[in-house]
C-alpha cells in the first residue's frame, strides 16, 4: 500500500506558497467559506448541524502546526508532512485514535481493529491480515462487475421513467452491494442486507454530528452519549451482521470462500484462539463500514465533479471506447489503462477525502515541531486541510485531475497527499477502492449522462465521511450509441 500512497511523490523540494492563475475553465467545486476562528465558531453554532468543515478557520490552510480555534481542551492541527507521518506512524505509542472517535464508533464496532490500539490492535491485525488477501483486486473484481451490472439496471429504469434519484444513496447502495458480495458472498437482494444498508444510512447521518459545545467545553476523555436513533441503528446492523455471519459458522461455512470465512478461520499466533462471535461481528462491521461508506463518499463526489465537466466526460469516454468500444466488458487490466478516470479519482480524493479528519489523542505531554502538546490534547491530522494547503498545492481549491500526470509530478509535495492514511494503519483496501472506482466510473459514464438538478445547492459537510450536506439529486439519460 505504501507504493500506492507514494507513487505521486516528487523528490524533496523547497516548497513555497504558489499563486498561479488557474485556467478560466477550471472548476472551483464547493467548499465551506473559511473565516476567522471566532466567526467560524459562531456560524457553526447558529447552524447547529455539527459540521466540522465549517469550523475550520482560514489560517488552518496556511499553518504547519497550530491551535484549531478556542477550547478548554487543547486542539492542534498538524499540516507539516514530516510531523503528520510521525503522528500517524506513532513510533512512540503516544497518539492512539482519539477518544471522540472511539466513543462514536464503539456501539457499532466495539474495540475492533479500526479503533483499538497497542497490543490489542497488533493481535487483531495479525489475525485479520490473511483475510485481506480476499480483497486483492483480481479476486474481488467479479463482485465489482456484478454490482456495476445491478446499478446499470437500476439506472436504466430511471432513464426510461425519467425520474430523479439521489446520487448519494445510489452510490451507497452500489458500494454496499459490492462489499456485501465480497465479505458475505451475497448481494443486497436479501431483506437482511437491505435492513443493514438502511441502518447504516441512519448511522452515517447521526453519529458524526459533533456537539460543538462539548468539543469546546469538555475536558479530554469525557464520554459523549449517543442518540437513541444511533443505538437502534447499531443494534440493527449488528443483529443482521450476526445473521449473515451465522451462515458461515459450522459445517455450512465450508461452502463459502470469502472474507467472512477467512475472519472466522483466523487464529491468534500465540494462543491459537479464535475471535468470539461478538468480536467477529466487530471486525466484519469494520470491513463493511470501511469498504462501503468511504467508497460511497468518494464516488458521490467523483460523479458530481465529472457531471459538471462535459469536456472531461468526452475525454474519458474516448479512452474507454479506444479500449473496450461501446459495449465490450471493461476488464481488470483495462482499469489500469484509463489515465483520465484514474486521475479524476485521485483528484477527487484530494479535494474530498472520504475520511475528513484523522483525530488522535496525546496520552502524554510532548512536542510536535516547536509546539508544546499537553496530555489529553486532541491532535488533528486533516486530509481535507493538508490536501488544500496553500504551501503544498498549486491552486489548491481547483479541480485539476491533470495535476497527477507524470509530467507534472514535480509539483507534488511528498507526504501532502494521504487519502488512505499513513503508517501501520494505512488503509488495506486502497488498491480495492481505486480499481472499484475506475471500473464504476468507466462503466456508468460510458452508458449514462448525469444531470445535477441543483448544482448551486451542493455543499460538503464532515459527517462520518465527507458527504454532501444535502443529497445530490440527479437525472440520468442513456448515451446515444
Description:
It is a single chain. This protein has 481 residues and is an alpha+beta fold. The chain has a single domain, classed as Cytochrome p450, CATH 1.10.630.10. The protein has a four-stranded mixed β-sheet with strand order 1-2-7-4. The longest helix is centred in the middle third of the chain and has 31 residues. The protein is globular, with a radius of gyration of 22 Å. 42% of the residues are buried.
Tell me the layout of helices and strands.
Blueprint: H1 2-6, H2 37-47, H3 52-55, E1 65-67, E2 75-78, H4 81-89, H5 99-109, H6 118-132, H7 137-161, E3 165-166, H8 167-184, H9 191-206, H10 212-217, H11 228-246, H12 259-265, H13 277-307, H14 310-324, H15 339-351, E4 358-361, E5 366-368, E6 371-373, E7 378-381, H16 383-386, H17 430-447, E8 448-452, E9 460-462, E10 466-468, E11 473-478
CATH topology, anyone? Cytochrome p450
Instruction: Return the CATH class.
Output: Mainly Alpha
Tell me which oligomeric state these chains represent: single chain
Tally of DSSP β-strands: 11
Q: How far apart lie the N and C ends?
A: 39 Å
β-strand percent reads 5-15%
Work out the count of structural domains: 1
Query: Main sheet, how many strands, which sense, barrel?
Result: 4 strands, mixed
Q: How do the SSEs run, as a string of H and E?
A: HHHEEHHHHEHHHHHHHHEEEEHHEEEE
Q: What is the mean pLDDT?
A: 87
Cα shape: globular
CATH architecture descriptor text = Orthogonal Bundle
Strands of the biggest beta sheet: in what spatial order?
Answer: 1-2-7-4
* Approximate helicity band: 40-55%
- Rg, rounded, reads 22 Å
What is the helix tally?
Answer: 17
